Give the backbone structure.
Amino acid sequence: MAAVPRGGIVAVTGAAGFIGGWVVRRLLDRGYRVRACVRDVDDDNRTGFLKRMPGYASGRLTLHAADLDHAGCFDTIFRGCHGVCHVSHVSTYDDADYIRRTCDHIVNSIEQAETVSRVVVTSSIAAVISEVDIQELVRRPVCYEDRYPDEQNPKRTASRGQGYSIGKVIAQRAFAEAAEASGQWDAITCCPADNVGPIQSAHQKDMGPWQHIIEGMLTGQYQQTPAYRPWMVVDVRDDADCHIGLLESVLVRNGERYIAWSTEQRNVEDICASIDRLLPELRHAAPPVTDPFPERIQAREAELRAIWAGCELRNDRIRAILPIRFRSMDESIRDCVESLISIAAVKVATRQG
C-alpha cells in the first residue's frame, strides 16, 4: 500500500499517554495534521499538554473523545485520515477474546473510512523476548524481529504472567490479517523496548513502569526488576520517530514488525547510580535496591543475570529503513529525571551535608 503522505492526516490513539503524546508532538513537528484520540477531551490534567502544543492553537491538532472498548467510536475520527498510529493500551491483556474485539473495533473504523492506507500498531519487546521458560533465551539468544516467544509451551498462559506478551502478538496478527484481507491498507508493527525519556505531563509519571521506577529512585525507593532483567531501552522520542518513519516508509510491507530499541542494556541498580553521575548538582541520595523476590529466585540471581547478559539485541531491520540515530541511555535518563522534577514536581531525596 501507499505510504502516508507527508503533511497528511494521522489519527493517534492513546494520545495522552507517554508514547502517544510524543508521537503527536513529532508528527506536528514534521508538518502533519493530527487527530489525537483520548478518553476525555475535557480532562485537562491529561490533555492540557496537548492543548498547549502550537498545532492545537492553529487547528492542525484536534482532540477527539474515543474509548476503544466501544464499537464505532473511531468511525468519524478516522474518516479522511491517511494513517493511524494505534498506540493505546487496552483495559486488560489477560482476556484474548476481549483483545480481538478491540482490534475489530479499530479495523472496522479503518474499513469504513476508506482513506487510511497504513496503520502502525504499537506492540512491545515482550512480544519478542517474554518467555515462561527463561532457558529459551539460552537456546535462542539473538533478539530480533523474527524471534517470537515459545508459543507451544503449555505454561505460556495469562495466569503465569504472559498475558501482555500474548495480547500483543494477538493484536499484531489481527491487524496484519485484516489488512491482507482488505487489500486497501497495510499494518506494520512497532515493538518498542523499555521507554525512557522526558514526560510531557505530570500524569505521565505513572503511565509507564520505567519513568515511575525512576521517580521511585529519586524519592528514595525502587525494586529489582523481575528475573533480574536489565533495562533494554529506547528513548521515547526515538520510539515516536520510529512510529512516524514506519508510516512514511516505502520499504515496509504488511505484517512486518520492527523493534525500536537502542540495544543498550543496564541493570536497574546501575540506572539509579547514573542519576548522581549525570546530575551531580542534585546531590541525589541513591537508595539501595529492594529485592522482593522469594529466596528460591534470589538464589538464582547470578544464573539469571548471566542469561540476560548472553542475549544479543539487534536493531538492524529498523536502521536499514530509517535514518535514525538512537539516543544514548544517559541522555534518556538525564532528560527523564529533569522532566520528573520540572513537570511532575517530584521531590528528590538528597544527601546530608
